[in-house]
Amino acid sequence: MSTEAPNQAFLKNMAGRGHEPDQFCAQAWTGVMVIAEAIKLSGKGGRDDVRAGFLKVKDLPTPLGKFSFLENRDGNHDPALQVVKDGKFQIVP
């Protein structure tokens, strides 16, 4: 596993593929990371096991920050506020 920050590793991976990713690419990438982590944590990989695995996802480092699931299965992560500047989405610090 890379020691780079997840967002930097994501950007490097996309650049290596000739892509300039947007927020939707980062969200999709993060979604796949969360699903893969839930499958890994499920142990067995059956439907009910994977469903239970989602609740085990805690503070998963992703390109969008740390991600967890709450007991009610809502996603728990810090939101990012974005604005359009020069025709592109940019995160407001």
Characterize the structure shown.
With 93 residues, the chain is of the alpha+beta class. It has one domain: Rossmann fold. It is built from three helices and five strands; from the N terminus they run H-H-H-E-E-E-E-E. A hairpin with a 2-residue loop joins strand 4 and strand 5 (88-91). Helix 2 (23-42) crosses helix 3. The protein starts with 5 loop residues before the first helix and ends with a strand. The model has no long low-confidence stretch (mean pLDDT 88).
Order of helices and strands: HHHEEEEE
Query: What portion of residues belong to β-strands?
Result: 15-25%
User: How many helices in DSSP terms?
Assistant: 3
- Radius of gyration from CA coordinates: 15 Å
Shape: globular
The total strand number stands at 5
The number of domains is 1
Helical content stands at 40-55%
Structural class: alpha+beta
User: What's the CATH C level?
Assistant: Alpha Beta
Question: What's the quick description here?
Answer:
The protein has helices at residues 6-16, 23-42, 47-55, and strands spanning 60-62, 65-69, 75-76, 82-85, 88-91. It has 93 residues and is an alpha+beta fold.
Give the topology:
Layout: H1 6-16, H2 23-42, H3 47-55, E1 60-62, E2 65-69, E3 75-76, E4 82-85, E5 88-91
Antiparallel strand pairs: 1-2, 2-3, 4-5
Helix pairs in contact: 2-3
Question: What are the key terms here?
Answer:
single chain; about 90 residues; alpha+beta; Rossmann fold; two-stranded antiparallel ribbon; 3 helices; 5 strands; globular
